[in-house]
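#struct-pred

JT: dropping the chains for the assembly here, can someone run the whole complex?
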Amino acid sequence: MSESAGHFEDERAGGAGGDSAHAVGELPAGFLLARVGEDGDPASFLELRRATDREGRGVRCDLSTIRLRGGASEARGMPVVRALGEARTIVDATAGLLGDAFLIAVAGREVTAIERSRVVYELAKDGLSRAMRDPVLSELLGGRLQLVHADARAWLAARAGTSSAPDAVLMDPMFPPKKRASALPRKEMVMLREMVGADLDAAELLRVARESARQRVILKRGDDAPELAKPDWSIEGTTVRFDVFTKNT
Ligand SMILES: C[S@@+](CC[C@H](N)C(=O)[O-])C[C@H]1O[C@@H](n2cnc3c(N)ncnc32)[C@H](O)[C@@H]1O
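RK: done, full complex below.
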């Protein structure tokens, strides 16, 4: 299914080793996916909330909250963008609420953001469509961010070795919460983790990503999380690190 603006594409690949709980992405009991505001009102938004939460208190995708006063040059200095090296075409294999994909697109790279959870995809699609109607955000994005509903393992495997394979793949899978977390994760992360669960197949996604990417794969992890595989090098942020796997290893 493609929407008229051409920014969304539905390529949910069935099978291909998909984990059904994630692939279907249905709402767990006790959650609502609801529109806040009148249908057709450009300020209305889709939110995920617990049935017991007040309207407007849920999780939404709102790209206007990402403060980038310095625009593209500020985005180019972000660790997630520096970790990409010279790569021009990027697949964000774990789109979530598009925070990383947004920074990378603003930095001038072409991004295909892939999300397999139907609910998270709907939230991201709603946030991206509002951003495209915002003159400042749409200028920053420059039409460089596409959102796809698919399992990235199947999507990438289908393009490995073809002219559609990306230069780089970014992965930011959901990991099980730390046993002794020093700080609570953001509300969005807590609710998303309840929604999609831990991405226990991240090692398989890393394997497929390394086969598909022409130049490199970037794995975003908590700063003290164990490595999924030995990276070539890492870029340290304050609470996260980016493990870089180059193609020739
Ligand atoms: C931690 S969140 C990503 C957050 C994102 N980087 C952001 O800035 O908003 C991980 C997301 O990746 C998605 N995901 C995990 N494995 C995936 C796969 N194989 N294909 C597509 N999406 C996947 C999960 O459904 C979840 O929404």
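JT: nice. Residues 19 and 201 are 8 Å apart (CA to CA). The radius of gyration is 17 Å.
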